[in-house]
Amino acid sequence: MTTTARAQGATVWLTGLPSAGKTTIARVLSSRLRAEGHRVEVLDGDEIRRFLSAGLGFSREDRNTNVQRIGLVAEVLARNGVLALVPVIAPYADSREAVAKRHEASGTPYVEVHVATPVEVCSVRDVKGLYARQAAGRLKGLTGIDDPYEPPLDPALTLGTDLQTPEESAASVYAVLAARGLV
Questions:
Q1: Could you count the other beta carbons within 10 Å of the beta carbon of residue 132?
Q2: Spatial separation of the C-alpha atoms in residues 138 and 121, rounded to whole Å
Q3: Which of 28, 4, 6 is nearest to 115 (CA)?
Q4: 40 pairs with which residues across the strands?
Q5: Going by fewer Cβ within 10 Å, which terminus of the chain is more open, N or C?
Q6: Helix and strand numbers, DSSP H then E, in the chain
Q7: In this predicted model, what pLDDT tens digit does every residue of 62-81 receive, in sequence order?
Q8: How many other C-beta atoms can be found within 10 angstroms of the C-beta atom of residue 178?
């Protein structure tokens, strides 16, 4: 019987505006990591809202609750050897800080990545039609437009997805993980 070292888990939190490219980067990165044999989960914000956070609205309190739920799931996965990729808007700095502190308290690696795509680029991409609905007056509280987004002050990495491909962005995240000995 051979003994293998326990896989190192970590949470990679990709925060940014709607349509910034967070989920696309996470999916590209997850494919690479899985191909290398890593255990990976993508905790997509939209999927989490549909299931784990069903019934929550978009008030500051509800957004905080959603982020804390996602943060708990990510930390548990990461603590147990999974690379948890978390593409979630998470607009408030204090909510993200609470997630980071949870990871720190358990000794679980946490890497915050700011997907810093300009709102003008996000509104053109408009993957879910949110910007168009907001412009037409059919949506209130769109992060970065009429609801605040507090960018990270000291992320491990800032990605300008308007200047690089999703593959280049994913490679940059991978490089940070490699430099920290997480892959």
A1: 12
A2: 21
A3: 28
A4: 83
A5: N
A6: 7, 5
A7: 999 999 999 999 999 999 99
A8: 10
